[in-house]
Specification:
This protein is mainly α and 181 residues long. Helix content is 65%, strand content 0%. The chain is globular, with a radius of gyration of 15 Å.
């Protein structure tokens, strides 16, 4: 599946604009991580773009989350590694590959970065820096839904927390217009 086909599928399945923005942010972060880690940028980006394809249908049943998406993606002949990563991000299967581990760490970090931008006086990503996010990261009450343990799994990618946050922040800043930030 190419990116355009994936985007059409996402738009036909997801109606919540904030969820669409989250999926775009995850795609941007995973593409940047793939570049940094010398991985397949298209594959990693695709995984980020489609990872929450079924969230609106499964939000009240977390045990089903990503399993419906995996079936849909299988029906569209999506690379099995992408499907595995989608399932891994929800915790339904262990995160084994580098892509699996990257999506697990990236999924919650996008929410942390958005929350940091929204609390900044300008409410713009361009004015947020890594130190600002690191300070917010340490406050467990801030963006409490952003699972810090998952984010810290960036170490499994060979990245420090600071480097991981910097990569994801820069990636999201590059698509700030699409994110409305």
């Amino acid at each position: 599946m190419d990116r355009e086909s994936a985007w059409q599928l996402v738009n036909s399945s997801v109606k919540n604009q904030n969820l669409l923005k989250h999926m775009l942010a995850t795609e941007a972060c995973l593409r940047a991580l793939a570049r940094r880690l010398n991985q397949d940028e298209e594959k990693w980006g695709l995984a980020g773009l489609v990872h929450d394809l079924d969230y609106e249908f499964t939000k009240d049943d977390p045990t089903s989350h990503a399993l419906i998406a995996a079936q849909t993606l299988s029906n569209h002949n999506v690379d099995p590694e992408v499907i595995q990563a989608v399932k891994a991000h929800s915790g339904n299967v262990p995160a084994e590959s580098l892509l699996d581990k990257a999506i697990v760490a990236t999924d919650p970090v996008t929410g942390l970065i958005v929350a940091a931008a929204l609390m900044h006086p300008t409410k713009k990503l361009v004015n947020v820096d890594t130190d600002f996010i690191l300070r917010r990261f340490k406050d467990r009450r801030f963006a409490a839904g952003a699972n810090r343990e998952q984010i810290q799994r960036c170490s499994e990618l060979g990245l420090s927390l600071e480097e991981f946050l910097a990569i994801c922040l820069k990636a999201m800043q590059c698509i700030a217009g699409q994110l409305g930030l």
